[in-house]
Structures are given as C-alpha cells and as structure tokens.
Amino acid sequence: MIKIAKRYRFFFVLAAVNMALLALNPVVGQKSLSITWNNVLEMLSVLPPIFVMLGLLDVWVEREAMIKLMGERSGVMGVGLAFLLGSAAAGPLYAAFPIAGVLLKKGSKLSNVLIFIGAWSTTKIPLLLFEASSLGWDFMITRLLINLPIIALIAYVTEKTLSADEKVQIYNTADDLH
After folding, report:
1. For position 177, what pLDDT does the model report?
2. Of 16, 30, 108, 114, which residue has the fewest beta carbons closer than 10 angstroms?
3. What is the rounded average pLDDT of the residues 138-153?
4. Would you say residue 12 lies in a domain?
5. Contact 46, 92 (CB under 8 A)
6. Who's near 115: CB < 8 A, 6+ residues apart?
7. How far are the Cα atoms of 5, 91, 140, 166, 168 from residue 173, in angstroms, in the given order?
8. In total, how many domains does the chain have?
9. C-alpha angle with apex 29: 26 to 32, nearest 5 degrees?
10. 46 burial via Cβ count (<10 Å: 0-12, 13-18, 19+)
11. pLDDT tens digits, residue range 128-142?
C-alpha cells in the first residue's frame, strides 16, 4: 500500500489541491477541476495509440536490427533515422519518452535517442508546415537549419559528459520500465 501511495503521490497531491481549492474558492476550484479533467481526457486519447505502437515496436523490431540501425556503430544512418522518427511523430512530447525507453531497451545509442527526443520536440513536420504558412518559409528553414545541428550537438555533449555508470543506469532504468 505504501508503495502505491508513493508511486501516485503527485496524483494524490493534485487531488488534494483541487479539493482544497473547491472548498476555499468554489469558482476557482471548479475551473481547476475542469482543466484537470480535460487534461486527463487528452492523455487518455493520446496514450493508448502510443502504447499500441510501443507494443508493436517491441515485438516486431528485433534488438539486433535496432542495434544495426540506431546502435553504437550506426553512424550517420542512426542520426538520420533518429531525426526522421522524431520529425514524423505525432502527439505531445510526453508521448516520446516511452518510445525513447523502448529504443534504449532495444540497444539504440543514447545520443540517437536524445536526437529523437529533440527532433520530436522541435522539428515535427506539422509544426514546420504551420510555421511556413504563418511565419514564412524563410523563418521555418532558418529555424530548422539552426535546430538540426544544435539538437545533434546537445545530444553528443550530453552523451559525452555522462559517466559510464550513469549510462548503464539509464539503460537499466529503460529495461526496468518495460
């Protein structure tokens, strides 16, 4: 019971804050509950397809294939695939992290997984098209050309600054979550 309470402590704190707001200021409390409920519904609409995709990725893609495509010796192909997967993805950024965990579990290089997360957050194709239509093609292309090397640089610097023990801990955590 204590383990469950510890695992869901943020949920319990949020519920307590919402109840306190409802008791102290009903108008604000109702607005808070409404926002919370809308967020829960949004997550429930996004997460099931992500978990189906995770299951398929876990079953269909062999570890050896992932190591070849995005592992330590994947080189430019691994970087390109990481950018492509992140840019073609759909959904909010929080959906990228379970996928990143599966990529780590399957043997992807840490920097490639970090590139995937960076691409998911900044180079998604719908975002680029929106920018091009509302801010212009020059802005979109300039931002993209700045973001691509910066994402790769951040990923490589992050990987190089982590110790071997920290990397092992990251990979072990990914294995433990799935």
Report:
1. 66
2. 16
3. 96
4. yes
5. yes
6. 79, 82, 83, 86, 151, 152, 155
7. 21, 24, 36, 10, 8
8. 2
9. 155
10. middle
11. 999 999 999 999 999
